[in-house]
Structure prediction request, 713 residues.
Amino acid sequence: MEEKFDAAIVGGGPAGISAACILAKRGAKVIVIERGEYPGAKNMFGGVLYGRALGRIIPDYAQKNCPIERNIVESRVSYLSEEGSISFSYRDQAFFEKLQNNAFTVGRAKFDRWFADQAKGFGALLVCSTVVTDLMKDGAGRVIGVKTDRAEGEVRAKVVLLADGVNSPLAAKTGFRPEARPGQIALAVKELIGLPEEVIDERFGVSGANGVTNEILGSVTGGMNGVAFVYTNRRSVSIGIGANLADLARQRVRPYEMLERLKLHPAIEPLIKDGKPLEYLAHWVPEGGYDSVPKLFGDGFLIAGDSAMLFNALHREGSNLAMTSGRLAAETILEALGKGDLSSATLKGYSERMKESFVLKDLKTYRRFSSLLETHGELFSTLPKGASEALRQILTVDETPKKARRQTAWEALRGRVGLFRLLRLVFDAWRAV
Amino acid sequence: MHFAVCIKQVPDTAEVKIDPETNTLVRAGVESMANPYDITALEAALGLKEKYGARVTALSMGPPQADSVLRQALSMGADDAVLLCDRAFAGADTLATSYTLSKAIETLGTVEPVDLVLCGKQAIDGDTAQTGPGIAARLGLTQFTYVLDVEWLDPGKRRLQARRKVEGGMEVISGPLPALLSVELEMATPRRASLPMLIASLRAEIKVWDAKAIGARADLVGIKGSPTWVKAIASPQLHRAGPKWDAAESVSAAVSAALGELFSDRDFEAGFAKGWKAEG
Ligand SMILES: Cc1cc2nc3c(=O)[nH]c(=O)nc-3n(C[C@H](O)[C@H](O)[C@H](O)COP(=O)(O)OP(=O)(O)OC[C@H]3O[C@@H](n4cnc5c(N)ncnc54)[C@H](O)[C@@H]3O)c2cc1C
Ligand SMILES: Cc1cc2nc3c(=O)[nH]c(=O)nc-3n(C[C@H](O)[C@H](O)[C@H](O)COP(=O)(O)OP(=O)(O)OC[C@H]3O[C@@H](n4cnc5c(N)ncnc54)[C@H](O)[C@@H]3O)c2cc1C
Prediction:
């Protein structure tokens, strides 16, 4: 094709569309190429977006009918053993008012499409049902465009933004970044369970527009490094679970089996009871953290979002890192277009912007988090059981004197995990977060 | 020549829900797509265009969002596209739909007469298969329904010959232009748009015509022009017991009995003798 674009963006997810919005708003000629029938058609995630990151791109998103499911007013963390559950929850009036939409749930099929419509409104060209199969390079190895799976499918562009997500056949083929190792990837499955709005309101103690997130850790992952979640949407509940790909392969566990087990847990089952399964999806999560982030730029290209392994595993944040990296990539591209220099010398500015932003700062802070989970298998195996037994001891009311009960409780915990292991865990956790 | 292809936007789902109260389709929250039969009709039109030369205009009656099926038509190679969009068109039954489409085809004809109208055999949501024949009746077009193939089209003689599906077999018929074809899925395999065509279709301006633009009478379009009331919907049981020959005793006896019966039909015998070639 003869036509030349200022920027070609591979992937219409949060990272790609954020960049497209910023670029198109400032008058750059941008094309987004998305393999799905429409953006979001096959995408899935847990469900929580962050208002701040979105607001930096579409300040009036709430007035523009952003398809928000529920504004999150309460966050719960549950630690599950086979039969028990230890939960911590925080609800704050601020989340109803001045921090409204700090976090909110969305469905990707609706949100991604809405987001892409905004980019189209700013003048970006969105081409769907089209797969980018290769990068075009000149004699000097500079990226000068992309090839797609359509006839006459070459697209020339001054710069290419790779925002194609974590599972990237394009990376495997072209080597623009190293392929992720199984240990750096989690495989997550999610089911959407339909329930009447009032039932969700009642079960989670909220009303209408407000909702709850519940992160879940413990023995539900069968000793594997992983997490689960339950999030409220308007008329459905998202329930999902994921575990490290290397662990799953080693233990030969199928993710849907974990999900079925989670759904039957006494603390979870009442939340989804009588619900109607609406959809079931699986997706990878890049969990390698700071040390897995590749070089973010080269001559004529930049990498953003999940494709650059930007995911905060402790806080379960990914979409905001994707949006922010997309935005910073776009700002760098605008600067480079202004200068007329799309070489790595100018595109390096992206890496610097990223280092100054919360994105890489946070990932650096939690650098040891993924290795903490990897080395402390007891978090997912013996500790939940020990902690549950200890609490059961303390809460059982009979004629045993309290001092003796506390003693048995402590022994239950120590017996399961071991004193040294416990101390080590506390120490490592302190260092990691 | 000038071809018009009628494309309906339909819900993208195998199980269309029906509102038990009103007996109408529940469309909210369902993805849309172009009726697959109509995309086949478009592909057939493009094939004929490439062979005999023609302009292809895609037509759709529907809400503003139906422009996506027209963009799809443009990306595949239609030369022009018109969306028939007017609040007054809403709630149309097949009578009103065929009226509206035929008025639009007449309007197209004032610029360049339409030689061939192509429709899908049926819409996958409404399923009546009445719209195409309705248009043919209103415009006095030669009617070719359930078409599998256009064997030839002669722009000079203004005739075409088509193979069509009939109960238990095929029929080859020919007739004069202007004509209407309603096509089966077997007729063509829709092409995938090239990237430049796809991009051009995304940037194209789609013409929008309202009732006034096509000179349609207000009392004949949309809900006002629709006398149909759907009383109940049910799937009929298919009881179609064809003739059977018992081959348990002797296979050759069963086969010769079956052949005997087939050749007792004089038309079959004649067709067999001519190798199924009809005269032009
Ligand atoms: C189970 C689960 C739960 C999660 N929960 C949360 C959460 O609650 N909050 C949160 O913030 N984050 C969450 N995340 C992470 C979040 O989903 C991602 O970080 C985020 O979607 C990354 O955005 P992205 O644009 O980089 O990639 P993606 O969203 O993966 O988008 C990539 C896009 O590129 C397209 N594409 C890929 N390859 C090609 C190609 N070759 N040609 C054309 N198009 C292509 C894809 O179709 C896709 O649309 C979760 C993830 C999972 C799996
Ligand atoms: C359960 C049900 C209840 C309904 N109830 C009512 C009702 O109460 N009142 C009412 O008025 N209508 C009602 N309709 C809608 C209406 O009958 C038809 O949907 C409409 O008139 C078109 O007929 P069809 O879908 O059967 O198309 P078919 O006749 O099967 O379509 C044949 C071909 O005609 C062409 N075509 C058809 N429609 C269009 C279009 N809009 N634009 C371009 N080309 C087109 C296409 O080429 C298509 O392949 C109902 C439909 C259903 C399924």
